[in-house]
Design a protein that fits this description.
Structural class: mainly alpha
Number of strands: 5
CATH topology of the largest domain: hpI Integrase, Chain A
Low-confidence stretches: 37-43
CATH class of the largest domain: Mainly Alpha
Radius of gyration: 29 Å
Number of helices: 12
Mean pLDDT: 86
Shape: flat
C-alpha cells in the first residue's frame, strides 16, 4: 500500500524522486555504472535488515535444573559431554567404545560434513558419568567390544542410540521442567562457555567446535542478557558503596577534623 502511495505521488510529481519502498524486482536490478556493476541495497529506507539472532544457550542455573531432571547415568553422561566438548548431537552418537580416553580426557567423534575423526577434550565429570553408565550397561547385557557403539538404548532389545531417541530423552526432562531446550542448545552453551573464557584462545575454540571460519566462532563472544543484567547490578552496588564511603584525607589533613566537617558519626 505504501509503495502504491509513493508511486502515485511520483507520477503526479508531488512526491519524492524515488520510491523508498522498492519492489523485489527493483531490488534485484544491478545498474551498470562506468562499465562496472554497482551494488544496490537489499532493502528500502524503511526496510531495515533483520538483526542476526544470537545462538540460544542454557544459563548455568537452568542447566543444573535440567541435569537434575535426568534419571539415568547414560543421559547424564551425554549432557556432560555435549556441554563440555561442544560436539554436535549427532557427532557424539558416532563414538565407539574404543574412543573414550579418560586418562587423557579425550573422546573421539566423527565430524559432520568432513567425516574426519577428531578427539575432543572433555570434562572429567563427563567421564565419571560415562564409567557409571558403562558399568550398568555391561551388567545389563549391552555388547562390549571396542568397535561397538558407545551409546545404547536402556531396554531390550538393545540398539545403538540414535538422534531421535536422544532428543526424546531431552524432551522428557523438558516436560518435567516446563522448558523447551534442544540438543543444539547444549552445543551453543559449550561454545559460549569456551569463547567467554579469557584464558582460552578463540582459535582453539574454533578447532574444538569444528568451525571453518573464525567469524562463526566469534558470535559466541558477546555476553548474554543475564550476564549483562548481573554486571550492571554489580555496577550499581559499587556506586552505592562508593557514595557511602567517606573520602580519604589528603596528606596534611587531620581525619578527625574531616569527620566533624562531613558529619561522620564516631
Amino acid at each position: 500500500m505504501l509503495r502504491s502511495f509513493y508511486n502515485f505521488h511520483l507520477e503526479e510529481g508531488s512526491g519524492p524522486i524515488i520510491n523508498p519502498f522498492p519492489t523485489a524486482r527493483e531490488r534485484r536490478k544491478v545498474p551498470v555504472v562506468a562499465g562496472r556493476s554497482a551494488r544496490q541495497s537489499g532493502g528500502g529506507r524503511y526496510r531495515p535488515s533483520v538483526p542476526q539472532r544470537r545462538p540460544r544457550r542454557i544459563p548455568d542455573g537452568h542447566f543444573n535444573d535440567l541435569f537434575a531432571a535426568l534419571r539415568y547415568h547414560r543421559d547424564r553422561a551425554l549432557l556432560a559431554f555435549w556441554v563440555s566438548n561442544g560436539a554436535r548431537a549427532s557427532e557424539l552418537l558416532t563414538s565407539r567404545q574404543r574412543d573414550p580416553l579418560p586418562g587423557e580426557q579425550l573422546l573421539g567423534v566423527i565430524r559432520k560434513g568432513t567425516g574426519a575423526f577428531q578427539q575432543l577434550p572433555s570434562s572429567t565429570d563427563a567421564f565419571v558419568w560415562l564409567l557409571l553408565y558403562q558399568s550398568q550397561a555391561w551388567q545389563a547385557g549391552v555388547p562390549r567390544a571396542g568397535h561397538q557403539a558407545l551409546w545404547w538404548t536402556l531396554r531390550r532389545p538393545f540398539r545403538p542410540l540414535n538422534y531421535h531417541a536422544a532428543r526424546a530423552m531431552l524432551n522428557r526432562a523438558n516436560k518435567l521442567l516446563g522448558a523447551n531446550w534442544t540438543l543444539h542448545d547444549l552445543r551453543h552453551t559449550a561454545a559460549y562457555r569456551m569463547a567467554r573464557d579469557p584464558e582460552l584462545a578463540l582459535t582453539d575454540v574454533q578447532w574444538v567446535l569444528g568451525h571453518a571460519n573464525l567469524s562463526t566462532t566469534q558470535i559466541y563472544l558477546p555476553a548474554g542478557q543475564d550476564e549483562i543484567v548481573e554486571a550492571v547490578r554489580a555496577h550499581h552496588e559499587r556506586q552505592a558503596l562508593l557514595a557511602r564511603t567517606p573520602p580519604s584525607p589528603a596528606p596534611g589533613y587531620r581525619a578527625d577534623s574531616l569527620n566533624d566537617l562531613f558529619g561522620v558519626s564516631r
